[in-house]
Amino acid sequence: MEAQVFPLKTTKPVVPRWQRQQRTPLDISACVLLLSTVILVLLSSALALVVVLAFSAVHNIATAPSTASTTTSGCTTPFVRKEWRALTGNEQLGYIAAVQCLQGLPTITGLHGAKTRFDDFQAVHVVQAEAVHLVGHFLPWHRYFLHTFENALRGECGYEGSIPYWDWSRDIDNGVPLSRSPIFHPLSGFGGNGADVPNYAGQFGNLSLMASAGWVPPGGGGGCVTDGPFAGYMLNVGPGTNITRHCLQRAFNDNLKGFLTGARVVDVMAQTTFEAFRTELEGAPVTSTMRLHDAGHNTVGGEMADRYSSPGDPIFYSHHGFLDKLWADWIDLDFSPRVVDMSGRSTVDPPYQNVTLSYELDLLGLAPVMEIREMMDTRSELLCYIYE
Ligand SMILES: [Cu+2]
Known about the structure:
Layout: H1 25-59, E1 79-81, H2 89-104, H3 117-132, H4 138-157, H5 168-173, E2 194-196, H6 206-212, E3 222-225, E4 234-235, E5 246-247, H7 262-269, H8 274-282, H9 292-300, H10 315-332, H11 335-338, E6 360-361, E7 370-371, E8 385-387
Parallel strand pairs: 1-8
Antiparallel strand pairs: 2-3, 4-5, 6-7
Helix pairs in contact: 2-4, 4-10, 7-8, 9-10
Bound molecules: copper (II) ion (CU).
């Protein structure tokens, strides 16, 4: 596999939509009108305040102490991210419809071949892939990435819910093959496996690689997804760092289920430092065999098995939603020390620094650069969500 990051191919300036409004003469007169209204309102409020102050002074009314706190009171009604199965049928359809809406909106980044808003996210992941995996900021970067995707669904597609997460260990512990998991249902879910391709060897031959390493034999599928809402949908970015128009592919592999059981989740949750937690969660090649993150990608296969372009399969956001939930749950098990526990190398190859809370996360214009400290607590004013 090529270890190469494409240079940014910016066909449009990376300027968010809200900063790109044109001013017309009509706008200017509207502005003048608005400004004079604001001045009038301010003047009358000031007058009212003087009257009230004079009144309370005369009547010796104690002024209530100010309890307003802009930082801690900002997340009073957090969004709730639920497991796919806990959504009602309408909520499931609403999420799929919102993703399809993003797939129909034009790009605002023009990054790396992106044509749609859905592509924008996939393209950012392709360009940043080498920088955000197998490093200390793997979990916080993906947390910010998912949060920004969720914001786009809400702000641009009128979606009122949250990203549903996919707890694959429930399917495996129930003895259900992937193809029968409710999340891959053709009518109420993400659609099923790709069409069978004889001797399918993975996007980059990675299935044959897995088999030759003695890990697991390849599963079936490998071709285009044939049913569900994304059958016939064409991606513009990927596979890998390529820019090609291609169908969404999957290659379900139930032979990986041993890496994705509830017992494996318990193993990861039992780690006592962030360093051990993040490596045991993310997997190879830092660990000798697969773990939750890479096994989840590879069990779906196809686009999802591609370390660059995997967000081309909408199931990416639900797989990473579950990993994000595990991190949030792990922090809650011992909140005070863990909400500030951050570590790991900053790059895969030396020279590298140690990742700390002040390390900056870059989504290449999808959202402002943020420090890791802003991603540590999902109940912060910025993130404001919880898991159920
Ligand atoms: Cu990733």
